[in-house]
């Protein structure tokens, strides 16, 4: 397995108390595989990814428990310099906002070339040629002519392609894309997502795609992990989840996708708000918002049940996964 996160916990020590942002996350992604991580804002998707990348703010962040195995080696046990090597060469991250991730005073060619100068000891000239090659690879038109331009001279979609090029530069084995298309308009979103999926297949990389948009993952993901209040509440191959969710929260997310055939109708929204992480409700964290909640949901934290009716590995942290699956 390329990456395996086991029982990961992350907390933030704040003036108001301890915010439990990640509460025992387990997920894995193999070479050539795409895992989509889904959930409302604040569910711990980015914090989990930052822990994997080794870019978490510690302090205030803390990892009291868990393992992050990269090809079997626990990254949490590495010294910072070893960790930095893995982060630079073996895994890369793509963020939502290219404009704040790219350096405004360096040309795109200089920034892409820098990767090859620093990590591969290339000459400036060779690095520039590599930069053009990468820009071609992410299909930026007229790469040779534009390599000397600055980030602000590119459109949002083109800038996101440059971010993808930066991430691909050292041919990482794992890419984490954190809401990579959220800031783009819809048609450009699809193009960038298609490009990312294509490159991932071509280079046989593992991809963790973080998004709050179930609509975009259907075509590109192999499996889905749904997060709520720092836990994974459902995990399944992508087609299984679309057929029938085994958790009421997933059902709520699915029902909130805008559908072309229901134009004009009011969009369904899950009622209520995600919990305060300083005071996660007892029992199932979703219970105050759940249309199926019973007494047991208010007292007992549901374990991650194996969905035994599924022919493929699948799990749900709902006491009533069966009812949900058949509902
Ligand atoms: N540096 C930080 N200090 C304190 N709390 C943080 C910090 N970073 C994230 N958090 C908290 O962790 C929770 C999960 O955040 P995040 O993983 O970013 O959610 P999302 O699922 O939207 O990516 C949020 O409630 C957020 O406020
Ligand atoms: Mg986030």
Mean pLDDT: 92
Q: Which cofactor or ligand species appear?
A: adenosine-5'-diphosphate, magnesium ion
Query: CATH superfamily membership of the largest domain, which one?
Result: P-loop containing nucleotide triphosphate hydrolases
What is the architecture of the largest domain at the second tier of CATH?
3-Layer(aba) Sandwich
Widest beta sheet: strand line-up: 6-7-8-3-9-10-12-11
Task: Supply the key terms.
12 strands, Rossmann fold, four-stranded antiparallel beta sheet, 34% helix, eight-stranded mixed beta sheet, globular
Can you describe this structure?
The chain is an alpha/beta fold and 327 residues long. It folds into 2 domains: 3-221, 3-Layer(aba) Sandwich (Rossmann fold), CATH 3.40.50; 231-325, no CATH class. Helix content is 34%, strand content 23%. It has 12 helices and 12 strands. The chain has helices at residues 45-53, 80-89, 98-101, 108-120, 124-137, 143-146, 156-168, 186-203, 214-220, 238-243, 248-255, 321-326; strands at residues 3-14, 17-29, 34-38, 61-70, 73-74, 91-94, 174-178, 206-211, 223-228, 231-237, 305-306, 315-316. The strands form 2 sheets. It has an 8-stranded mixed sheet with strand order 6-7-8-3-9-10-12-11, sandwiched between helices. Strands 2-1-4-5 form a 4-stranded antiparallel sheet, with helices on one face. α4 (108-120) crosses α5, α5 packs across α7 and α7 (156-168) runs parallel beside α8. The longest helix is centred in the middle third of the chain and has 18 residues, at 186-203. The protein starts with a strand and ends with a helix.
């Amino acid at each position: 397995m390329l990456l395996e996160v086991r029982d990961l916990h992350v907390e933030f020590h704040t003036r108001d108390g301890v915010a439990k942002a990640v509460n025992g996350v387990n997920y894995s992604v193999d070479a050539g595989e795409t895992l989509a991580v889904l959930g409302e804002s604040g569910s711990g998707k980015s914090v989990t990814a930052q822990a994997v990348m080794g870019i978490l703010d510690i302090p205030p962040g803390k990892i009291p428990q868990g393992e992050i195995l990269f090809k079997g080696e626990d990254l949490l046990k590495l010294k910072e310099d070893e960790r930095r090597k893995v982060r630079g060469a073996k895994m890369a991250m793509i963020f939502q906002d290219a404009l704040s991730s790219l350096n405004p005073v360096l040309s795109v060619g200089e920034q892409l070339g820098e990767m090859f100068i620093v990590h591969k000891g290339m000459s400036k000239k060779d690095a520039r040629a590599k930069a053009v090659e990468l820009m071609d690879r992410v299909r930026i038109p007229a790469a040779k002519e534009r390599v000397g331009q600055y980030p602000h001279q590119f459109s949002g979609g083109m800038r996101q392609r440059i971010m993808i090029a930066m991430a691909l530069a050292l041919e990482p084995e794992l890419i984490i894309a954190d809401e990579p298309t959220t800031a783009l308009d819809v048609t450009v979103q699809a193009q960038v997502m298609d490009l990312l999926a294509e490159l991932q297949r071509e280079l046989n990389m593992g991809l963790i795609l973080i998004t709050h948009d179930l609509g975009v993952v259907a075509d590109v993901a192999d499996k889905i992990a749904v997060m709520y209040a720092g836990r994974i509440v459902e995990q399944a191959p992508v087609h299984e989840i679309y057929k029938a969710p085994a958790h009421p929260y997933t059902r709520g997310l699915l029902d909130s996708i805008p559908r072309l055939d229901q134009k004009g109708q009011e969009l369904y929204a899950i009622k209520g708000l995600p919990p305060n992480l300083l005071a996660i409700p007892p029992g199932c964290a979703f219970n105050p918002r759940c249309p199926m909640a019973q007494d047991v949901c208010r007292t007992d934290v549901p374990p991650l049940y194996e969905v035994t009716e599924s022919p493929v590995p699948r799990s749900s942290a709902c006491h009533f996964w069966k009812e949900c699956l058949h509902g």
